[in-house]
Design brief:
Mean pLDDT: 90
Helix content: 25-40%
Cofactor: Fe(2+); L-ascorbate
Shape: globular
Protein name: TauD/TfdA family dioxygenase
Oligomer: single chain
CATH superfamily of the largest domain: Clavaminate synthase-like
Number of strands: 23
Keywords: Dioxygenase, Iron, Metal-binding, Oxidoreductase
Domain TauD/TfdA-like: 106-343
Number of helices: 9
Structural class: alpha+beta
InterPro entries: AlphaKG_dependent_hydroxylases, GBBH-like_N_sf, TauD-like_sf, TauD/TfdA-like
CATH class of the largest domain: Alpha Beta
């Protein structure tokens, strides 16, 4: 114990770790502090005395026995404490890529629908690369819905659930025309922004209409290295985004590159069609337009762009927080281009992946993890 008992120092092979007495107390894993069924806290952490101290700390193997100045005593697993305190790996489980991706992440629809291991593999590829191409999707308008139901609820929007993406007269959105689409993320004017895009190809016989994909995290980190001033600007300035039609008014804002608390890229935005930059001071606007141009040249350039054309019965699942997607223009004289699109949120997708990983790991091994030696 150090600082008159307000801190506990643990020594372990990875280095010393200093823990606050208050932090240890509010995490006490006993029935008086945490509900045994839900794991949720029963005490109000704000009611703990700010001068709380440890009066005793004893280590026996992996068991750390603690007594506090408020009279509370508890035994905890030292290895569990260490695991909780380890800093997460940067971009854990992700592989950044450019346009020359040697092999596309692939999944089979029927296998993912029927087999948990195949579904987990599909979700882990989605986490790793930000997208996965799925083959064997049933050839009807709601063909992808059964697999969506294996993961989480379909996110409904003002366009309904699963909606058509095809050229129509009097289009209410540029996606419903034959023009090419610049690299973009979907719906930055919503709050929350949809997490994953599911794009199912029913017909793609038109001339053109190839899909483009860009790893936005890879491009953003490249910009950070090569032009840190532009990167900083795009994390600081928050343009607005707007979608208006006869029945809907949607507006939101956010930076083109959004960082998490550790300074890692957590989300990218780009939507030339819907962006509305406010009338900021001239110096800020000039700085922003230059930074935005530098970023656009990256995400629209050949080095970062992957080109592919979906065939009927294939679909893409894309991370809308990480990937930019677009398409080339197409001509209907050569045939029909008909896609169906839906959204699934990030929380249900991540939950399904993590639970499947735990369940399959438990099936493969009932052995507990190796515990680390810790000295107090």
């Amino acid at each position: 114990m150090t600082d008159s008992g307000r801190q506990l120092q643990l020594s372990h092979p990875e280095g010393d770790l200093t823990l606050e007495a208050l932090w240890l107390r509010e995490r006490s894993p006993d029935d008086a502090t945490l509900d045994s069924l839900t794991g949720q806290r029963l005490i109000e952490a704000a009611d703990l005395p700010l001068d709380l101290r440890l009066s005793e700390a004893q280590l026996d193997g992996d068991t750390l026995s603690l007594a506090f100045s408020d009279g509370h005593a508890v035994s905890v697993s030292s290895s569990a404490l260490l695991a909780e305190c380890r800093a997460p790996q940067a971009y854990q489980g992700m592989t950044f890529w450019k346009g020359a991706l040697a092999q596309l992440p692939e999944a089979d629809f029927a296998a993912a629908l029927d087999d948990d291991a195949a579904l987990l593999d599909m979700l882990e590829q989605l986490q790793r690369f930000g997208f996965v191409r799925v083959s064997g999707v049933p050839d009807h308008e709601d063909g992808m819905q059964s697999l969506i139901h294996r993961i989480g609820p379909l996110r409904r929007t003002n366009w309904g659930g699963i909606a058509d993406v095809k050229s129509v007269a009097n289009a209410y959105d540029l996606t419903m025309t034959q023009r090419g689409l610049e690299p973009h993320t979907d719906n930055p004017y919503r709050d929350p922004i949809p997490g994953y895009i599911w794009l199912h190809c029913l017909r793609n016989a038109a001339q053109g209409g190839d899909s483009t994909l860009v790893d936005g995290f890879s491009a953003a980190e490249h910009l950070r290295r090569e032009d840190p001033e532009a990167f900083a600007c795009l994390t600081e300035v928050s343009p607005g985004f707007r979608y208006h039609d006869a029945t809907t008014r949607l507006e939101s804002e956010g930076p083109l590159i959004e960082l998490d608390s550790r300074g890692q890229v957590a989300r990218v935005r780009f939507s030339n069609r819907t962006e509305r930059v406010p009338a900021l001071p001239s110096a800020t606007l000039r700085r922003y337009y230059a930074a935005r141009q530098a970023f656009y040249r990256l995400i629209a350039g050949d080095d970062f762009t992957l080109h592919l054309k979906l065939a009927p019965g294939q679909m893409l699942i894309m991370d809308n927080y990480r990937l930019f997607h677009g398409r080339s223009a197409f001509q209907l004289e050569g045939g029909i281009r008909h896609m169906r699109q839906g959204y699934v949120d990030r929380d249900s997708t991540a939950s399904r992946r993590l639970l499947l990983a735990d369940q399959l790991a438990d099936q493969l091994s009932g052995q507990p993890d190796n515990q680390e030696e810790v000295t107090a």
